């Protein structure tokens, strides 16, 4: 198995990306995701000194990293398309953040999905195709995919655009089978390739958030250690469950207390490195 012990760079990054070295004698499988998230985490780690707040910003980041690479050449390919200037302008001025208020995220995500269905290309190969060998047939597929996207999202002159929060939902089902605690259609931020993953699965005109960070965790190695997490639980009551899930959706952290002997009375210091 790929592994590192006390690396010289003093940190490890893993975001479900491929960890197998190129040319490794064993096949590591194809379940890994593209490396957009890992690349962005590494960039953020090297950008400045780190503390609790900066780690929280990294874990809660909802930038659609793939869009920062793919969207500019995509827009260049459809520059001759007319009649959809409003939607194109929304994409042109997008800051790539997939907050619940974003109007661009639904268009971009659906566009990429339809284009991938037509070409069977991953995001990396799409980028290569868009920037190196943009032939007439491929350009036509990009344009068709864009127009099909608008139709799929029911966007027309008589229908207004929907925000990401109006289309992207997470459902929480109680594992005990007690459906009185089930929570449905919780609006969530994040996209497929944002650090704070908002896995979008298309279903009947909406996106289901089906996997992501069940718990976000930050541990400060102070004395004693301080543990912060954002977790969708507990469910002692329906009202408590709703509050907890909304805190999780908003990426709000809480200090967790552990009964560790002789530590509870010691002073703690915040860390920077």
Explain what you see.
35% of the residues lie in helices and 12% in strands. With 273 residues, the chain is of the alpha+beta class. Helix 3 runs parallel beside helix 6 (123-132). The longest helix has 17 residues, at 136-152. The strands form two sheets. It has a four-stranded mixed β-sheet with strand order 2-1-4-3, covered by helices on one side. The protein contains eight helices and seven strands.
Q: Descriptors for this entry?
A:
single chain, 273 residues, alpha+beta, four-stranded mixed beta sheet, three-stranded antiparallel beta sheet, 8 helices, 7 strands, globular, disordered C terminus
Secondary structure topology:
Elements: H1 36-47, H2 52-59, H3 65-77, H4 85-92, H5 104-119, H6 123-132, H7 136-152, E1 168-172, E2 183-187, E3 200-203, E4 206-209, E5 215-220, E6 226-231, H8 238-249, E7 254-256
Parallel strand pairs: 1-4
Antiparallel strand pairs: 1-2, 3-4, 5-6, 6-7
Helix pairs in contact: 3-6, 5-7
